[in-house]
Write a structure and sequence with these properties.
Strand content: 5-15%
Order of helices and strands: HHEHEHEHEHHHHHHHHHH
Shape: elongated
Number of helices: 15
Number of domains: 2
Distance between the termini: 25 Å
Strand order of the largest sheet: 2-1-3-4
Helix content: 55-70%
Length: 369
């Protein structure tokens, strides 16, 4: 291993990156744009649900109940209806997701101590919104009953929930850290997937082969510039997460950067391996996109819980490095945990990085086929 030859390759690659505006834009702008778009687009928070109300009772008690729903912030009442058959057009057209029907005898039943029932119709086409809306309805109804003295039975168990790590239950707080892992997986794989393939396409690989340059020196020389770019992108995404999206960063920033560096080495080595196998820039870029984006998005636990997946898919997720990086990011961001609780994830990332670098080193051959 010659540090002089490695430094020459690093210098050559930096010059090449500087002369390629597309690579620069993809390196620095793409992570920012993707995090901005997906950070605002992907959310599981359900509020301001379009709702129609059919109040047949039209009493002070029924109006008070309607105000309870409208003032909660979870329901946005878009129309007040007079007849029951007017509900279907709103639900069929997707203009409303919830319909609240207050019967004629609501206030009478309330005064006589009988059950004052209210009908709630939910659009089940979006099951996630319907389930959450159903929970909102139950909570608001229970609160209204207690406040107006309708709920006289004392509960057998007084259950009081406490939420740790994400007290406001903001979906953005757990989506953004996972999104960083997905974006970085794609970006670093795309960047390095073109390095070796570019040399073959431009006919400069023959010149490199004729030099005394060794395969590990070539791979390391090409990895270092993109590793630095990856660290800069990591810092940018962390700053955006904390300053723009207000995601709490409770753990050590230094530990986060160190573990991110390990993840970057594995991802960049994987991109180099794709570049060696693909041989052409077109094939390499397509392979990088499919093999990095889909596994990291679907099989990392970023959105879909791994424990709910079929057993064969759960076994496949162990080969996805983004799975471990998502756990690391969420642990450091939201829980503030240290390396002691992340030893397994860190060790597996180190093994993955070393294994992929070794395979890439063995796969490259200094000869013209």
């Amino acid at each position: 291993m010659s540090l002089l030859r490695i430094r020459a390759i690093i210098r050559k690659e930096l010059i090449q990156i500087g002369r390629d505006p597309f690579s620069l834009a993809m390196a620095f702008l793409m992570p920012v744009i993707l995090l901005f778009i997906y950070g605002y687009a992907i959310t599981f928070d359900v509020d301001r649900i379009n709702t129609v109300v059919c109040d047949m009772d039209k009493s002070p008690l029924s109006r008070e109940l309607v105000e309870e729903f409208g003032g909660s912030g979870y329901f946005s009442i878009i129309s007040y209806l007079d007849r029951y058959n007017e509900i279907d057009p709103y639900l069929d057209a997707g203009k409303a997701k919830v319909a609240i029907v207050i019967p004629y005898n609501f206030s009478k039943n309330r005064r006589t101590g009988r059950d004052a029932q209210v009908e709630v119709i939910l659009d089940g086409g979006d099951s996630n919104t319907a389930n959450i809306a159903q929970g909102y309805v139950a909570a608001i109804s229970a609160q209204y009953a207690r406040r107006t003295g309708m709920d006289t039975a004392a509960p057998i168990i007084d259950s009081r929930s406490r939420v740790w790590y994400n007290t406001e239950l903001r979906s953005r707080n757990f989506i953004i850290p996972g999104l960083i892992a997905v974006i970085m997986s794609v970006i670093i794989a795309l960047l390095t997937s073109l390095t070796i393939a570019r040399e073959w396409d431009r006919g400069t690989m023959e010149q490199l082969i004729s030099t005394p340059l060794k395969t590990p020196e070539l791979i390391i020389g090409k990895l270092v510039p993109y590793f630095l770019i990856g660290l800069i992108d990591t810092v940018l995404t962390i700053l955006m997460s904390t300053l723009l999206f207000n995601v709490p960063l409770r753990g050590s920033v230094f530990l986060l950067l160190v573990l991110s560096g390990i993840f970057l080495i594995g991802g960049l080595s994987f991109g180099i391996l794709i570049s060696i196998v693909g041989r052409t820039q077109t094939a390499a870029s397509q392979m990088a996109m499919v093999s990095s984006f889909l596994p990291s998005f679907l099989l990392s636990g970023f959105i879909f819980s791994i424990s709910n997946m079929p057993k064969p898919l759960q076994a496949i997720t162990y080969a996805v490095p983004a799975r471990y990086f998502v756990t690391i990011l969420k642990g450091i961001f939201l829980k503030g945990i240290g390396l002691r609780l992340l030893v397994m994830e860190t060790s597996l990332l180190v093994v993955y990085a070393g294994l992929i670098f070794f395979v890439a080193n063995k796969k490259f051959r200094k000869r013209v086929e």
